[in-house]
């Protein structure tokens, strides 16, 4: 089916003077990218820096307005994904392109059936996949439904799928976002093996440590342009971060650990034995107990989907547990009379939800309308049944000033702000009413490095002001940078609780996967 | 309103609000013109007769406004539900029930009370009946998960059957051959426009246009104030745009479904004030005549905004009135051709808008921006 690869020239991909505009926005401007054959090439940059656009051009989702592409030394016009695949380019998207209700084997075969009769096609595909799995070490049970495969396996399957289609250049978009530290290590091993076998890998990521560990060369993009391009030996996490943001960035913990541990205050939230099953009867929370003290940040670590979201839902009143109790100050709640979001706000619980798009804002609302969401009934914002629009807009402008939300336009539609600015506006809203308890889900998901620093600073300031802060994050680095105490969740229960001084990535990683085997 | 055409493309607001409807209308007229030419008529003649028939004479204008009044009520009804994230197909049935409510109040209280008391009570009766009729599908949607589109369609049939049953078996005066109630008392009749203008000394030809055209304007203003100035409207729109965000804010989506559909039904129920209290002066069959469905097109074309709905109602009113004139004056041009034209307008301002808008954006505004970048 695929011709034997000609002796590969030394340059796998050369993109020259790529330009791409979306309306007034220049997503790519005179971008040059050269990827050596058989290397792992890191492509880093903040959200909106243009790295995804660039890779989408290479993979044929977009056509560039200007510039040229060469693949293995040959000029290439790539109009769609089929063109890209024919040139030996494969892509593993951040959100997997798999059909949950088909088996792993069928997913690989879908759209590339080697024979008109399915059972013959399956035999051929199975045979080829077996050799492929052997040579690469990517092992997946081919007869399992994709929906039943763990996330790590789904990702391996995506890589297999690309290799099966003859990919010699593999583009990976944020591949470690959904993996545990251990799975990440496994992935890196596989990628190392693929590189040794001559596959070229382009790694889109914002985790600079991974770039330093895995890549041979790195290209940094900012505002649609390449701002830095160097061998990994000449780079450091700090220099890359600076290139991404355009200024020096303070990363990691700011204050000494011991000084913070002492200032913990009274218990503000006491949750006991929370249990929750979803509609399918799957256990989401199991005997979850937690004390939240004033003046501390508790980090909840875990692979996504192990009950962290449910903790936020239940504590904020969005969801109701099946069992357990909760006390907030003098108020006590039981499943039959659980608190609702309005009661929660009245009790001084502020909640920055994980899902900015579906929860934290109404994307179609103007910024000022989103900036009062949940607080629209406050006396300052209302006059009888009417909204005090002028007061709301003024408050929004003040929030924007205080949290440096750009552009400072309260009438701009919420969805048109960048992720970081949306998050800042949500934080401004939730911190604005001086909450006693702050629940934060994924504080910096989809947020630029510059804004991360700012948001972390704000959360620490809340803690220092005596607020009890609960942070759920899928980024271990974030937990390590913020938390005073870390609880680790797996399959809806707490598998460990550590003061920050005892936390190491390896130790947390072990706790994150503990119980997975049980 | 994530599904609104306002989100389709990078068009400036003025273009989205003013230019696009105009272009869509133009394309629809051209397409209709081609069809008119195909059946051997002159498109220009048809168009000029249509416009003259709708706006050229005081009488024609009165008819246009009279039709527009009904469409405004049903259009606003669809829009309010849409802002709450619901597609109310039941305007027809809610309008029937509204007329029934208006009519029953008129029949019961009209003979005993002066018009300053009866007329407001008729209005309230119509709105309440429409509201209750919409609240049942709303309840089923909110608490039982039956889709409101399906149930409101079914409720249209129920409403129509209920009206026939009541008229034939209960309300028809004994011995009468026509299926309608007895005439209302004089106090239960909404003043006609020519009567009111006549009282002011202005001569105006007799037409069905009546005081409810003012009611329609007031309703449009009230809908605007509710949706964009009141807290309840804010909450309704929050649920309509993002149920998840609304739940997060502590706004109960189920309650809002009832609010949105209740208001929607009440607005549709006001149709009775125009058709029953204003014109017929008695309960009849078929007084809604498909206006509930036309309201969907009106709301679509009016971008679910009260001002847009007033303009779209005027357009559809003109099509109805002008279309009747065309069918009358142009030989060989039947009423069906006018319906075809309406169909084109709905097609191009609704479905095809999504096809046309990006092209306009690219053609006109793409050039403009590039020019600006070079200059």
Structural features, described:
The complex is a heterodimer of chains A (518) and B (375). Chain A has helices at 51-58, 81-86, 104-109, 118-136, 151-164, 181-196, 208-214, 237-245, 257-261, 308-316, 341-346, 356-360, 367-370, 389-402, 419-432, 449-464, 476-482, 505-513, and strands at 11-22, 25-36, 40-45, 66-71, 74-76, 89-92, 169-173, 200-205, 217-222, 225-231, 267-277, 283-293, 296-301, 323-328, 331-333, 349-352, 382-383, 386-387, 437-441, 468-472, 485-490, 493-499. Chain A is α/β, with parallel strands linked by helices and 518 residues long. The model of chain A is unreliable at 1-5 (pLDDT under 50). In chain B, α5 packs antiparallel against α11 (253-269) and α13 (291-301) crosses α14. Chain B is globular and about 65 Å long. Chain B is mostly helical. The longest helix of chain B has 30 residues, at 115-144. The A-B interface holds A 23-24, 316-318, 340-342, 344-345, 351, 353, 355, 358-365, 369, 373-374, 376-377, 382, 385-387, 389 and B 1-2, 4, 7, 10, 229-232, 234-235, 237-238, 241-242, 244-250, 366, 369.
Topology:
The complex is a heterodimer of chains A (518) and B (375).
Chain A: E1 11-22, E2 25-36, E3 40-45, H1 51-58, E4 66-71, E5 74-76, H2 81-86, E6 89-92, H3 104-109, H4 118-136, H5 151-164, E7 169-173, H6 181-196, E8 200-205, H7 208-214, E9 217-222, E10 225-231, H8 237-245, H9 257-261, E11 267-277, E12 283-293, E13 296-301, H10 308-316, E14 323-328, E15 331-333, H11 341-346, E16 349-352, H12 356-360, H13 367-370, E17 382-383, E18 386-387, H14 389-402, H15 419-432, E19 437-441, H16 449-464, E20 468-472, H17 476-482, E21 485-490, E22 493-499, H18 505-513
Parallel strand pairs in A: 3-8, 3-9, 6-7, 7-8, 13-20, 13-21, 16-19, 19-20
Antiparallel strand pairs in A: 1-2, 1-4, 4-5, 9-10, 11-12, 11-14, 14-15, 17-18, 21-22
Chain B: H1 13-38, H2 43-56, H3 58-83, H4 91-109, H5 115-144, H6 148-171, H7 193-199, H8 212-229, H9 231-241, H10 243-248, H11 253-269, H12 271-280, H13 291-301, H14 306-329, H15 335-351, H16 353-374
Helix pairs in contact in B: 1-15, 1-16, 2-3, 2-14, 3-8, 3-11, 3-13, 3-14, 4-5, 4-6, 4-11, 4-12, 4-13, 5-6, 5-11, 5-12, 8-9, 8-14, 13-14, 14-15, 15-16
